[in-house]
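Q: Fold this one first, please.
A: Sequence and structure below.
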Amino acid sequence: MCHLKDYLGTNKLTTLVAIYFGASILVKILFSIDILIPCLWKSIFHVECPGCGLTRSFIELLHCNFLGAYKYNPLIFIVLPATLYYIYNSIVEIRRKLDAQAQNAR
């Protein structure tokens, strides 16, 4: 649990975005209320960006609807594993630093 606190402390912006993203998905699933931030690219240029539909795709994955997730945005199958890999590597790096600090303190 200590490693998670250290990760959240060192990645504050990522943590805030993840909390907002998680809360907005929860509200969307439970109450069908969309509080997600609109795509700025689409708002300005009236063309969908490569990231449009990732949130809807993620929600479909939570419902185990892989075909629906693919239809909203096929990049979810690249972005989600890459994000999980980034988070995992960050936690491993923090754990190594804490272990090194603990060994130096002895």
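Q: Good. Now the second chain.
A: Here it is, same layout.
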Amino acid sequence: MRISAAAFALAIALTLVACSSGESDDKKSAAIAEEPEAAGPRAAGGAEAKLVILGSGTPIPEPDRSGPAVAVVAGGRAYLVDFGPGVVRRAEAAFRKGVDALDVRRIAIAFATHLHSDHTAGYADLILTPAVVGRHDTLRVFGPVGLRAMTLHLLAAYAADLEARRATGDDMSGYEVEVAEIPTPAALVEVYRDDNVTVRAFAASHGADGGALGYRFDAGGRSFVVSGDTTPTQALLDACAGCDVLLHEVYCERGLAEGPPSLQAYHRDHHTSAVQLGELASKAAPGLLAAYHVLGFGCTDAEIQAEIASRYAGRTVITADLDVL
């Protein structure tokens, strides 16, 4: 479903049914994987596909860790996963460091793991700012059920801004958003494919958030699995199964153990400890285990890495913003 800036009046009225073009969510979601067939994933000019960490943080406003956001770069194009606070400025920083695909005017495809604020607070920025500085392509966003309503509400919130830009003659195509919702998959399921990349989604386990997702990207001869927020699951093991890079959320087990019982219960039901992550990686056998969404609870990165190493002897890194893997 494409949501046009021209339809902001509909968004103000919150006519969600009217904007769905009369199709059921199931029918629209089932069509996600029906992308044009391609010759297969490749990287332009033989360049290796890579994973760029745009934000390695959490809801905690740490100045050196922006909100969760990463980009798979393949074939000269960037494919975002999540859009936490600071995503557009981190993309611009990566561009200035030489990752040409992260020129914000060219970012036009993104995937959401779930709709919690730390993963989506940069969504309005992703819709608006690249268009302000010259994006002309429609922004295509894939994610869990609820993403369509979130998009409509954001466009409604910025209706006056959009109308002012229209009145001054802006090309409004860059402000348009095409939303595809992904129902919780029972197994690894293809949700997107083009000449550069194949993207498959799997169910994550994030407490009461039954729609949370993780993603596997196959591009340029490499495979990247992004966990999103989750406890350890068989679905993630199946998605990785020797993948080149497993990017997984983590918290420090010792640090959490010093917190109040309610905090401990919440995080054990929603997230993965460093010790658990080590156990999971020993089964998934990634080429590189990379941790993001780092909840330290007073622990250093070295202490978190030591907890992982207590169960896993493979290559491991605790990521920082603007790392390239």
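Q: Anything worth noting on the second one?
A: The chain has 13 helices and 14 strands.
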